[in-house]
Specification:
It is globular, with a radius of gyration of 25 Å. It has two domains: about 210 residues, CinA-like (Maf protein, Alpha-Beta Complex), CATH 3.90.950; about 190 residues, Rossmann fold. It is α/β, with parallel strands linked by helices. It has 17 helices and 18 strands. Helix 2 packs across helix 6, helix 3 packs across helix 6 and helix 12 packs across helix 14.
């Protein structure tokens, strides 16, 4: 994961963690509680240490013992403690206690908050690096409804004390940001890494909710995580909320489709449907243990050197409207996507792709940056349980190109045969012939020029959304 350091001017103007904690403590209106499970009182410690904490902290608690924790917050159905469900129970419980025990009549100007985390740090054998959830519920006025920010972190340091220090700093940044940067959520997100190395801790999920964030689309916040190097991949569900990749992918069969989806077309959906039919026929694949991902790479979002956020949201909204899970990743090469997914599952995986994309996979130029070149990349990509479902294309002569007649560099032919004859490449035969003439770039041009007929190549309901919301540069005033 790359580290993007701020400029010198920005570094000089960043307030220290001590000054952030002190500013919170000296604000006579901010008052709340801390509940921390699993990694000590790392966040609360910053506020106690700078002084003035009596005006800010009503209570701190660390229900470290599982029985104590269950008695306070209730038992989890899955028996786990480091979960989003547990975090939300902690936040809800502590806010209720705060409101019940601190009379509003005596404290009419207080803005209440509860910060909570549930965390597991690196284990003794140093096999599992650790991860955790943290969040805050807070008011920005005594009579205001509560807003909430919750996020999931993954540790990359190899010592528990360093992980605890990073957690403490990020928690202090979160509390400060909630009160002083809530009107600028993108900056709030960026400032979570103040005084922390991005290689130390990864944020792979974040969600904003409540009245302060009514205008915030969490899919756009997902994009910021990848764009700013805070994580390499994020996922969101059809409702538009960010979801934890580890939870969604754990021990699942995974079918992934990469594309620009600009816009999503009938050929994309045909590839998805026909690939899924084949995938569900695999011996070890069970439908209730299968997840399908529509993946867009960061490089696919970049236009003229910058990421067009409206263009991204157009694609995301269309895919979500069709009921799909979307992944945004920084994996330009397919092998990196497979390597990432294999962290969470050893079950069957498959990539659905067109012939053109598959031919590009065999271009050695893509692998110049890794020491083992294409051999190392393919070793990671075509691991035991991966297959490629190949969707055909029509060449300039009108011939249908499949795995049997695709053209590769002569040096790659024997290499390719090894994977093909070992069953790693599976042709999709039950395709719709008419869709082979559908190209998203051509449709995109037609949309921008308001030409007739483009809507016929899109799934049901998609063209209506494009017209209604003026997506992809659609302008009803242009007549062709």
């Amino acid at each position: 994961m790359s580290t993007q350091l701020p400029g010198e001017h920005e570094l000089e103007n960043r307030p220290s963690i001590e000054s952030k904690a002190l500013r919170i403590n000296l604000n006579e209106h901010i008052y709340g509680t801390f509940a921390e499970i699993g990694a000590g009182q790392e966040v609360a410690r910053h506020f106690f240490r700078v002084g003035g904490a009596s005006g800010t902290i009503a209570k701190t608690i660390s229900a470290y013992d599982k029985n104590f924790s269950d008695n306070i917050y209730g038992e989890e159905e899955d028996g786990r403690y480091v979960t989003e469900t547990r975090l939300n129970k902690m936040l809800d419980h502590e806010i209720k206690l705060l409101e019940n025990r601190i009379p509003r009549s005596e404290h009419p100007n207080k803005m209440f908050f509860t910060y909570a985390n549930t965390v597991t740090t690196i284990d003794f054998a140093k096999k599992f690096k650790g991860h955790g959830w943290m969040g805050i519920r807070f008011q920005t006025g005594p009579d205001k409804e509560f807003s909430k920010i919750i996020l999931h972190v993954r540790f990359h340091q190899s010592e528990a004390r360093f992980q605890q220090e990073s957690l403490g700093i990020m928690g202090a940044n979160l509390i400060y940001g909630a009160f002083y940067k809530n009107d600028q959520p993108k900056k709030l997100l960026k400032y979570l890494y103040d005084h922390i190395d991005k290689d130390a801790i990864e944020i792979d999920t974040i969600n904003f909710s409540g009245p302060n964030f009514e205008g915030v689309d969490n899919r756009l916040m997902s994009l910021q995580l990848v764009k700013k190097g805070m994580t390499e991949a994020v996922m969101f569900n059809p409702d538009g909320n960010n979801i934890l990749p580890a939870r969604e992918l754990y021990k699942k069969n995974i079918l992934a489709l990469r594309g620009s989806f600009r816009p999503v077309t009938k050929v994309n959906i045909d590839m998805f449907e026909k690939s899924l039919e084949v995938f569900l026929q695999e011996q070890e694949v069970k439908e209730n243990k299968t997840v399908v991902i529509f993946e867009i790479t960061l490089s696919n979002l970049i236009s003229q050197g910058e990421i067009d956020e409206k263009d991204f949201m157009d694609r995301a909204k269309l895919l979500c409207s069709l009921g799909h899970i979307v992944m945004i990743s920084n994996f330009k090469e397919y092998y990196r996507l497979v390597d990432y997914l294999s962290q969470y599952t050893k079950k069957q995986m498959a990539l659905a792709m067109g012939v053109n994309s598959f031919v590009d996979v065999f271009d050695e130029n893509y692998y110049k940056d890794i020491s083992g070149g294409i051999l190392e990349a393919f070793g990671k990509m075509f691991y035991n349980n991966l297959k490629v479902y190949l969707y055909p294309m029509k060449n300039d002569q009108g011939d249908i190109v499949t795995s049997n007649n695709l053209k590769l560099h002569p040096r790659m032919k024997d290499f390719y045969k090894f994977f093909k004859y070992n069953g790693k490449v599976v042709d999709i035969y039950d395709y719709e012939l008419e869709y082979l003439d559908v190209f998203s770039r051509k449709i995109l041009k037609q949309i921008k020029n308001n030409e007739k007929g483009w809507d016929q190549h899109l799934p049901e309901g998609i063209s209506e959304m494009i017209v209604k919301n003026k997506m992809f540069g659609f302008d009803p005033g242009i007549k062709k």
